[in-house]
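We examine the record.
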Amino acid sequence: MLLNESGARPMSGGTALMLMMKAGVLRPARLVSLRHLGLEGIELGAGGELRIGAMATLRQLEKSQTVRSGWPVITRTLRTLSNVRVRNVATIGGHLSHGDPHMDLPPLLSALDASVTIAGPRGERSCLVESLYTGYLETTLGQGEIITRVTVPPMGPRRAAYLKCTTRSADDWPALGVAVVLDGENTDIVISAATDRPMRVASPEAADGLPIQSDLHGSAAYKKQLLRVYVARAIDEARNAGH
């Protein structure tokens, strides 16, 4: 398998990969295209779960009637994710594999208890999206492993929202991302962008104890204040937005 070779990197949409190469952060010896693996499908599983092939583009997800009908929170989130030119090319598998904490879908999919199927030299395995990240630009994907599918459980009675604060345009990298899922008396909250990876908190009050990171999008003190405001807003939006 070409991906097992030293210095080889998989390429799906290539949007983040090319930027890293131009910046000199990444210098792969070989790029292996994943375009012809037949992983573009978006469908419902036998149990009503959403099954997304890793090579489905973000624009396909945004326009999918299946996603809009059963998981409209994903559709709403995608409408302000980067810009339409990027969404036309970027794939869900590449988006999740990149490991940048400023990405919008990892916190939302984590809050929705989504999982990924991963294929590699040792076979196939699955893990929760939440367990995929270990730090800034760091994931649990091993050499030669690629994400092949994303599975999102049915929404059922759950209500969800994702809010982000950007310091410039609405499609800019966020200074803070907040995903909230309400299920009866339970409230699941996942924070991103202000932390080095998506992090789940047990309650709105617990969010104050997160290890907030300063970066070009704002200081830690600024983001902590944003966090208090946006968690409350996201909970209110989830209550009023249905799925």
Remarks:
- The chain has a mean pLDDT of 88.
